Write the structure tokens for this entry.
Amino acid sequence: MKNTLNIAVVGLGQIGIYLLNELNSKKKDIFNKTGKNINIVAVSAKNKNKKRKFNFNKKIFFKNPLEIFNKKKVDILFEAIGLSDGISKKVVETALKKKIHVVTPNKALISKHGNELAKLAEKNNVNLEFEASVAGGIPILRTIKEGLTTNKITKVYGILNGTSNYILSEMENTNQTFLDVLKKAQKLGYAEPGNPKLDLNGFDAFAKVRILSALTFGSKISKYKCLMEGIEKIELKDIKIANQLDLRIKLLGISELKNNQLFETVHPCLVSKKSYIGNVSGVMNAVILEGKPVGESVLQGEGAGPGPTSSSLLADLLSILRGNIKKPFGISVFKLKSTKPYNVNNYINSLYLRFEVKDKPGVLSQITNRLAKYKISVKRLIQTPDKKNNKATIVIITHKTSEINCRNCLSIFKKNHNILKTPTLIRLYN
């Protein structure tokens, strides 16, 4: 490898511009740790003159990132656009075909096209690095690929979206509603000011789950539809009731092998306040791995933001500069298994069910009789009347039941006029 390597940064949003500043300010540190010099030869974004937190050399600016390949000799490309398709995919594909190393935090891109992009990287003997795509500054992917590579991991789960975790934590701490806390998160930069939907509906966490699955279980990134729910339906009332039960609500991403079948899911969970995961608050992420012989391993840290993300991007850069040519998923993409999906209908959980009902005789028995018909038994019941409005809140904690029984049962409640809104369902973490 030559002594000076040319770098291009494509995408100058919060992460891209922060990264660019880090690259410029840490050149000496990078040289001391790798013996290699870096030279930033190109940057690209939609708007050259947009006001940004850090300045950059506008003489090396390209509006069209694809032009970089024709006009500059690039050794390493950082892609920080953030889309799964379109120009993001085209830029990465082109770079790999031209034998250029690629570093990206783009979990949407990797979770959708990772299999194909890994093939390109291996074919051209270059790196496709994406440590920053999962859990920000936490080195979880490197831990799986290198630190725990001889272990048999059976399960990986955790809090993978800092925005959702901040909102749930803040609702509990401040007694504010979901919408009020969301506005606060947007002002603080934890949630997208325009459309935070991908953080709130579970998609962001689910993309990370798919990447974790591939690395953990040596499987191809799954294309199957899986159980995915976000936190949009969680109300302050649920937070308060959970607190009474000595529980907390957390959005968990879970991947595990059940009977050699891959089960991936993202949904809110009720977890014990005494558990490790129950005490991860604010914008923090935490990933827990279960395996043999290592047992349980926990990694926690800031999972989002330009600082933690840039930390992982630079770690990937230093690995490349040290001459580490690695398989993107730890083993050759051609050896990744096609794992069958676990039937989500067989998913077993205890349930938290909240009903808003008319306060009249017989309503409770209608609910419990319906639950019994679908083999769902009641473990605990809390009934809170609202006499002023002639309403009541009924919360039922169930014994364990299957997902299919739960879904079929709840669909029937839609036809009951005594139930005023769709029941709230939160699964208890097993």
Summary: The radius of gyration is 24 Å. The chain has a mean pLDDT of 95. The CA atoms of residues 6 and 39 lie 5 Å apart. The chain has 14 helices and 18 strands.
